[in-house]
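Action item from last meeting closed. Structure (382 res):
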């Protein structure tokens, strides 16, 4: 039986390895759901005969073209589904992501509920037991539906059982950083891929394409509620980036990260997140000062590239502030975005995973204490 631990009170230290693992657990579970949603929508869309090159766009959204085409000549339903669901050599596959999510949850056993741990174990066992027969075209939509439901069950259990102390705020930070990153990638790739030719503007094909983009972000019904008569590309992009009420919009995800970081500073005295908050303020101001039409006129791709870079830096600065940083080899940008893939190595140092330029090694114990008042080697406190 796992020992019972007292909840953390104000002034008590949250071990930095717990802060780190909580952020990563949230990011990986969010990434699994987003990936399952995009695969499901793409499968539905291509089966209607209106999505000619959409399986390649799944690879582009995840910045995996180099890795994918190193061993495959074509992006079709069979190759993409295997690569992103079953392939354990692909660190961005659901089979790999659930493995590192579970390892982070193992580190967090003193903090998370038995229900959280049990569900993650059951999900891990199910996902790692999937075979090629489970990703046949006739089964793919059903499989993706269950993957989404399993992730949503995780969120529900977490919401209902995770004690509201420092750990909760780090979970919120990880979840919404990942969600904002995924939304910007989706808009960046899909907007330029699906810009219609003049002959198609307003056609049924054009409408179904933009419906698919909204469904990929679980935004279709919310969008139709606000704009029942328009499916214009700029309106869709504006909704996904700038809407203040949609849970997956870039604006709202940044607001959630900002709130969680601010709570850590005010309620728990974790002052080292100042650099991340300053960068967050700059990013939020740039969104508040522009309409979607102005962003598109100045260059949507360039703007979203800059946003993704800022999200990458915010993650880096949070890591530098709150846990021991292990630099990773630089990953070149692939496609239209900074590579943000996970990688894992099993060896004498345990499991390591990288996101952008940051690496986590699970099991390392020489971590800094985020409540420690001493300055890190390169101070970032404002």
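Sequence:
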């Amino acid at each position: 039986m796992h020992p019972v631990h007292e909840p953390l009170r104000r002034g008590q230290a949250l071990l930095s390895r717990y802060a780190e693992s909580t952020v990563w657990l949230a990011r990986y579970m969010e990434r699994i759901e987003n990936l399952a949603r995009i695969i499901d929508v793409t499968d539905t869309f291509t089966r209607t005969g209106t999505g000619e090159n959409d399986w390649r766009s799944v690879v582009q959204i995840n910045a995996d073209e180099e890795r994918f085409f190193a061993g495959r000549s074509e992006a079709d339903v069979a190759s993409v589904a295997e690569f992103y669901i079953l392939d354990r050599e692909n660190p961005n596959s659901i089979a790999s992501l659930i493995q590192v999510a579970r390892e982070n949850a193992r580190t967090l056993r003193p903090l998370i509920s038995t229900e959280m741990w049990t569900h993650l174990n059951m999900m891990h066992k199910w996902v790692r037991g999937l075979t090629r027969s489970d990703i046949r075209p006739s089964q793919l939509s059903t499989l993706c539906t269950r993957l989404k439901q399993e992730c949503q069950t995780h969120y529900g259990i977490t919401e209902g059982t995770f004690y509201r102390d420092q750990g909760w705020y780090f979970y919120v930070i990880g979840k919404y950083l990942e969600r904002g990153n995924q939304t910007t990638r989706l808009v960046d790739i899909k907007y330029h891929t699906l810009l219609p030719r003049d002959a198609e503007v307003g056609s049924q094909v054009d409408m179904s394409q933009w419906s698919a983009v909204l469904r990929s972000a679980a935004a279709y019904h919310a969008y139709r509620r606000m704009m029942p008569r328009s499916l214009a590309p700029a309106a869709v992009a504006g909704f996904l980036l700038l809407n203040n009420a949609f849970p997956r919009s870039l604006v709202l995800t940044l607001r959630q990260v900002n709130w969680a970081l601010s709570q850590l500073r005010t309620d728990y005295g974790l002052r080292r997140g100042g650099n991340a908050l300053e960068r967050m303020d700059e990013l939020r101001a740039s969104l508040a000062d522009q309409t979607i039409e102005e962003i598109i006129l100045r260059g949507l791709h360039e703007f979203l590239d800059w946003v993704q870079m800022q999200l990458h830096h915010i993650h880096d600065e949070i890591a530098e502030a709150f846990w021991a940083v292990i630099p990773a080899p630089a990953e070149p940008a692939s496609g239209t975005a900074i590579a943000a893939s996970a990688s894992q190595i099993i060896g004498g140092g345990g499991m390591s995973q990288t996101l952008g330029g940051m690496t986590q090694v699970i099991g390392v114990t020489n971590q800094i204490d985020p409540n420690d008042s001493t300055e890190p080697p390169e101070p970032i406190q404002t």
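Note appended to the action item: The radius of gyration is 21 Å.
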